Amino acid sequence: MNGNNINLMYVEDDVIVNDTITSLLQKLGYTVYNFFNGADAYNYFKDNKIDIVISDIDMPKMNGIELVEKIKKVNTKTPIIFTTAISDEKYLLDSIKLGIDLFMKKPIDCSVLKENVDKVLKPYFLELENEKKEEKIREQAKEILIAKTVSMISHQWRQPLSKIGSITSKIRVYSQMNKLTDEILIANLEKIEKENIYLSSTINKFNNLLEKKDIREFSLKELLKNIIEDEISIEMQNNVFIKSDYDEFKNIFESILKNSYEQFDKNDIKNRKIDITTFQDDDFLNIKICDNAGGIDKDTLSNVFDLYHSDKSLNGRGLGLYLAKVSLTLLTNGEISLENIESENGKGVCVKIKIPTMYVS
User: Fold this and answer.
1) Alpha helices in the chain (DSSP H)
2) pTM
3) I need a surface site. Which of 94, 168, 298, 353 has the fewest CB within 10 A?
């Protein structure tokens, strides 16, 4: 296994042992950061990328147990190898509880050291390889989605562009017949302007999706509090923090809630209720947004995420929940679905969102 690009931290208070093992690890191709006590090692670790830690247990200032406890709070996945002397056996139980990957008895056998480092790093390399494969799949999925979206936008634009062409032809004919009055000209220019606003608004929305995102960690509960109305209840066992673009996620939830509000108005629902619940499994953060707005018919349910299906805010033609689906896919490779439900609060719709746990903290 190639040690190139692997940052290895070695912590040992014995100067001669430290220098010897550090030199050996460097000859094996690792980038080595060596320290003589746990306190200095931790101060460096918390602010830098370290792929594996090899540490003595019995050290001044901060022993190996205390060091690993702090390291695990920063990154639970960092592989740890303990080098132990006979006198360190009192620490072994604590070491096991901390999830130490491997123990090596002192004095260190140099031929075994490389084997053990490779053994501990193997899962790291496999996970790294899998992450690269998953990222490639996500990028391919995004490219397909973008291509499909551009194609659908082009198709959708034909109608307004055709209208603009028809209006300009009409103006030209009126002018040639000397019948182009100010009233006719202004009325037709207003129609062109209306179509132009629609075209500009549409492309701006999609441009926003494709721009570089401001990725940061934010509280889902706080985000929801900023956009919900009084009749909405939120049920979360624990507050959830998501690592993504705050504004885009806000737009996603606003689009979903807007559809519920429109159904409330359409069906004249008096006792309005929207429940938002979350739960997390090994693979996904699951978010459910359920209302009692009366539900929607099956035909609408089957194509509610299609481009321009609903949301009539843009000149009588909307982007519906399609943008929410595209945005969620581009941001997190997440999933969104919708189904009719019937509960004690009445009939309604439940939107289900699944976000991979790698975007949740």
Assistant:
1) 15-27, 38-45, 64-74, 92-97, 110-176, 182-210, 220-225, 246-266, 298-302, 322-332
2) 0.48
3) 298
